[in-house]
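Sequence in, structure out.
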Amino acid sequence: MAANQLLASMFGRPKPLIGMIHVAALPSSPGARLAVGEIARRAADDARLLARAGFDGLIVENMHDTPYVAGVQDPAVTAAMTAGWRG
């Protein structure tokens, strides 16, 4: 299946608008300053804003976990990216 057909089947339109949620630095990264609950709350606020703006889908990314680690991540990162997310 071609990419445009896949997107159309997933979102019901040929060119969906996809937003990006950039979560704050997660536990174990040098820039971590917030509790996981606050990180999740801010990400959820961003998601609601993008949904109200008409975005069709969202991607969640932990781009603030710099410097980036190649290979195995600290289990705290995986736990933080999954904790509290209820859709």
